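Severity: low
Component: inverse-folding endpoint
Summary: output formatting inconsistent between runs
Steps to reproduce: submit the following structure tokens with default settings.
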């Protein structure tokens, strides 16, 4: 490992992330919650992300620096920190005590920077490499070889690799990596809670007697949004008067909307909802939420729906079965299977299925998640005395 991972006193934790935009979903939510948690624990979080123009802001999650990033075509607005020299100069000026990186591809070079600077560095694995490659059509064998090659380099480059679930961890355990730690994500159990839905919202999207399904997801290949439309079509063929509301945007939106029109499927595309409370209201109003992504390594949107008391139907091949538990159902990645699982959930008494969903979410608060991430950094929640100690001072 690079440097000593355990030290008392306040730490400057510099976090780098790509693929974050104002309309991002789970990653943006996780970064904000972790930053706010680090700050509340007495540390100094600094987040560096790509954007259109340079910005340096003080926020509830700590300092957020936006560097001009290179746009990626056909990704719905994603950018990356492609200028290594500028990013390295910024890292040097920030003088981090810890480095946390959320991109195993274009930012993996920061592991070597951290080694030279003697800064303990953590890579957070937010995706399954072979899983994502598989959704892009790469054959299984080739995807696995590419993932193993990338993951070996990642494990060697960083002091620790953080995975949010056992499912996410398996890519690293199969290559024998020994510096992997597990730290779950969480959900704001106050902001996401039962009772946020309303009859007025329901009347806007569904007629009396109709089943309201919701999909809160980025509309990209790896999220499996097409399966949600497949499930809707299968339910309606079986006589279930279901409608679907989609919150989210992405490169597949126009194609999905055209399909819905062509097949006369009752789908409402809301686009990106900038207000998290609007998303929560949709999740709480829906009868069921769908999580068809085949390579989800945690699934924050699904967990948020559970916290709102709404059961979730999740892809059986993802990490979500371990998250959803008795709060929903799992299905193979096709519309018929999702429809079967949805009908089984709807057959349960509403009060019981909503109570089970909320009970499951209550196992995933942000407080234990933040403690686990801090532990990966060799940090802790500071007492009043240690907060007053100068940064980097010995105990």
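Observed output (run 2 of 3):
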């Amino acid at each position: 490992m690079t440097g000593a991972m355990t030290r008392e006193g306040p730490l400057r934790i510099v976090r780098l992330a790509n693929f974050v935009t104002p309309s991002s979903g789970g990653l943006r939510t996780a970064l904000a919650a972790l930053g706010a948690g680090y700050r509340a624990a007495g540390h100094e979080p600094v987040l560096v992300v790509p954007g259109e123009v340079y910005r340096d802001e003080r926020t509830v999650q700590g300092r957020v620096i936006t560097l001009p990033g290179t746009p990626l075509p056909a990704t719905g607005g994603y950018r990356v920190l492609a200028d290594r020299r500028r990013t390295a100069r910024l890292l040097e000026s920030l003088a981090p005590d810890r480095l946390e990186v959320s991109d195993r591809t274009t930012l993996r070079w920061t592991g070597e920077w951290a080694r030279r600077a003697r800064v303990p560095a953590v890579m957070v694995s937010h995706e399954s490499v072979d899983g994502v490659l598989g959704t892009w059509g790469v054959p299984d064998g080739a995807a696995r070889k590419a993932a193993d090659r990338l993951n070996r380099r990642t494990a060697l480059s960083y002091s620790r690799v953080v995975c949010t679930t056992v499912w996410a961890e398996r890519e690293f355990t199969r290559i024998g990596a020994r510096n992997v730690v597990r730290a779950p994500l969480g959900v704001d159990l106050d902001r996401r809670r039962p009772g946020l839905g309303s009859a007025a919202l329901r009347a806007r999207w569904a007629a009396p007697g109709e089943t309201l399904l919701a999909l809160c997801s980025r509309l990209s290949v790896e999220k499996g949004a097409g399966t949600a439309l497949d499930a809707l079509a299968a339910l309606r063929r079986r006589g279930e008067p279901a409608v679907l509301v989609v919150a989210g945007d992405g490169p597949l939106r126009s194609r999905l909307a055209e399909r819905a029109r062509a097949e006369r499927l009752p789908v409402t595309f809301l686009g990106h909802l900038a207000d998290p409370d609007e998303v929560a209201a949709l999740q709480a109003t829906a009868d069921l939420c769908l999580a068809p992504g085949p390579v989800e390594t945690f699934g924050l949107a699904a967990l948020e729906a559970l916290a709102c008391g709404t059961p979730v139907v999740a892809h059986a091949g993802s990490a979500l079965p371990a998250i959803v538990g008795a709060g929903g159902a799992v299905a193979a990645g096709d519309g018929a299977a999702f429809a079967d699982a949805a009908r089984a959930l709807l057959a349960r008494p509403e009060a019981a299925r909503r109570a089970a969903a909320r009970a499951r979410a209550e196992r995933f608060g942000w407080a234990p998640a933040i403690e686990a991430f801090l532990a990966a950094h060799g940090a802790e929640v500071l007492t009043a005395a240690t907060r007053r100690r100068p940064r980097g001072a010995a105990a």
